[in-house]
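On clarity, I found the account of how folds are encoded harder to follow than it need be. Since the whole study asks how a given chain folds, the encoding of that fold should be made plain. For the editor and my fellow referees, an illustration may be useful. An entry of this sort, consisting of the sequence and the corresponding backbone structure tokens, reads as follows:

:::
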Amino acid sequence: MLLHPVRPPVMAAVLAGAAGAIVSTPLVAVLAGAGAWAGGRALATRRAAARVDAGLRGLADGLAALAAELRSGRSLDAAAAAAGSACGDTAVGRSLLRAVRTPEVAPPDLPGELDAALARTAAATRLSQRTGCSLAAVATAVEDDLRARSRHRVELRAATAGPRASATVLAGLPVLGLLMGSGVGADPWSVLTTTATGQVLLVAGAALEATGLAWSHHLVQRALR
């Protein structure tokens, strides 16, 4: 199923908050929970995007199979069944089957570009039914469009890999600073968690860290769009 996971980030936040409360102060527990939730949310979003990409590749494979089956002379129902099996993902295969057999029915709500791609597939089927043009040719056109979009996304992600890596390295520098301070005999963690000034600095630092990561993510996503 191509669903966006919600529970794992919440569970990560609860576990991190509980661990923070056990080993440190309530303030650390809150910050740890918030950080774990944000990290879990980012990971869940990345995994959901990967599933959407896999679904789009499966849909392109299904359209290729549909066109090949139609050109070989098979009936629309048989070609649609073969296309659904070629998708790999069960939900995408069922949606493609519905878009080809009953294009007048709105496709199910799937995440990301899958919904738009299936809508284009249904529109292509309606166009073929109304005008008599070759459905194989229209399916091939939609397949080519999907593969071109996929190549474009891969190129954009490769181009933004450097900025993403830089943001990750910069995000880890505060932790490195704490480790270096502990290594020279200081106790920065105790200062940050047990003194009023340190707690203010801890909250301010965590807020700046979150703001920097969010802004970096926004810039990368804007470039990808």
About this structure: The chain has nine helices and no strands. Residues 26-71 form the longest helix (46 residues). Residues 1-6 have pLDDT under 50 and may be disordered. The CA atoms of residues 195 and 201 lie 10 Å apart.
